[in-house]
Amino acid sequence: MSDLAASSSFVRQDLVAERPAPVTTTGFVGFVRTRLLNSPTNILLTILGLLLVWYTVVPTIKFLLVDAVWSGKDRTACLAENAGHPVGACWPFIQAKSTQLFYGFYPEAELWRVNLTFALGAVLLLPLLIPKLPAKGLNAGLFFFAFPVVAFFLLHGGGITGFGVSWVAGLLQLFADSISGVGEVLVGLSKSSAAGPLLWAIGSIIGLVGTLLHWVIFPLTWLRDQMQAAGQGPWLDFLITAVIVSAILFVLGGGARTGSRPLIASLATFAAMAAVIKLMGLDHGGLPIVDTRLWGGLLVTLVIAITGIVASLPIGVALALGRRSTIPLIRIFSIIYIEFWRGVPLITVLFFATYMLPLFLPGNFTVDGLVRALIGVSLFTGAYQAENLRGGLAAVPRGQGEAASALGLSWWKTTSLIVLPQALRHVIPAIVNSFISLFKDTSLVSIVALFDLLGSLRASFADPVWTTPSTAFTGFAFTGIIYFGFCFGMSRYSLFGERRLNAHRRN
User: Fold this and answer.
1) Per residue in 195-215, pLDDT tens?
2) d(Cα 482, Cα 488) in Å, to the nearest integer?
3) 36 and 46 in contact (C-beta within 8 Å)?
């Protein structure tokens, strides 16, 4: 048996021959082998891609960098006969028009205000974008609430003559005057209409409602008039507003039973507001007023884009929740609002907000042209954000809300702490896509006489000092780089946020 086993065993007498090295699947060589040249179709596509790069990217780099003119005082520096070679980009034109492209016709002596606004915005925004930095709540409050007010007084200028009491009294008085005006119009129409008695009755009732409102708000308007007559500036109004608001927050926060933290936070906020008012001199007229018709360039683009982005998201959240509401009136209003604004082009919205809206306002009430455009853009974008968020709400499992209800959470806490965060996480790509689209659509405000970045660029082409064959191409290339930088930055950060918030879904 042992002889049979020995005879059937095999023992190699020489070394095994060397085998070829395994195919490289990592690194640059592996990428080329497995992604670009792994099939005849991919080889053909790779060749076509290289040809596309050769005929597009290479000429672009040559135009922007190699054949570009970098210095000069007028158009003669960007002419081929003076440069001695085919001229590409005329960068001296961008240098000469940089102020107009970034600030429009903002007074040169006041440009520090725009630069300070940009610096404050960057200082407050960057900590919000870095997840590991602390104090996100305070930072968000400063960026979304304090910064817009400071930016308004920095960019526009002017001061304040009143505060909360005067502002509320003025709005209520305007509302009461509008109702009384409608009643007077109907009574006037009753004298020349076939339905005169009916119009007279309706107008009289509406006028009576307006009169009653005037009497209801009379204590508030009387207090406003007395404060203005006292000549104390906005400080007395500021003190009364601080006392009223702090007392309300103290009572709503539970009073002495739950501690005085809301009261301390309110007093600290009003103290910070007082410091800002005093520092900027808002109680003595503030900075010189710069009319918004002088604004332009990148300033207007950023103001419209940032305002639209910040304002449209809360509007979209409210409309998305309203469309899912069980209250018929809220649900129907939300549906009508969303479908109306989604069915109207943005150009029409801007045109209506600029030229038609003043016709519906009282004669003594005017709204700045830029503010009208901001309102129109925010309302328009809010409708699209509502549909994005409604898709995210529909993607949240129903069991999440049921589990919250089982734990005894209220509807507000369930929505704000459980349902809405998950919905926002689901629709980050759609939301950022809308933001990018809005940033590019700001160029449409040029139809309502607002000079954004592209509008200022087109206006700069009218200068005969810089009329060359490459001026227009250089200008559009420069603005394209700016648009690409902002849009690409938003896109990459959205991918970063999406990966971070969806870490539990990684394979």
Assistant:
1) 677 878 888 888 888 889 889
2) 10
3) yes
Beta carbons of 378 and 305 less than 8 angstroms apart: no
180, 231, 232: which is closest to 206 by C-alpha? 180
Measured in whole angstroms, the distance separating CA 276 from the mean position of its chain's CA atoms is 24
β partners of residue 104: 295
DSSP state of 297: E
Tell me the two tokens of residue 405.
């209800």
Residues with Cβ within 8 Å of residue 402, at least 6 apart in sequence: none
Based on C-alpha coordinates, what's the Rg of the chain? 32
CA atoms within 13 A on the CB side of 238: 19
Q: Which of 437, 438, 424, 429 is nearest to 493 (CA)?
A: 429
Name 152's Cβ contacts closer than 8 Å, sequence gap at least 6: none
Q: Please list, in sequence order, all residues whose beta carbon lies within 8 angstroms of the beta carbon of residue 505, skipping any fewer than 6 positions away.
A: none
Residue 491 burial (C-beta neighbours within 10 Å; 0-12, 13-18, 19+)? middle
The answer to whether the CB of 292 falls within 8 A of the CB of 156 is: yes
Per-residue pLDDT of 114-149, as tens digits, reads 999 999 999 999 998 888 888 888 888 889 888 998
CA atoms within 13 A on the CB side of 155: 26
Q: What SS3 state is found at 22?
A: coil
* Nearest to 283, CA basis, from 245, 243, 244, 239: 239
Structure tokens at 334: 């939300």
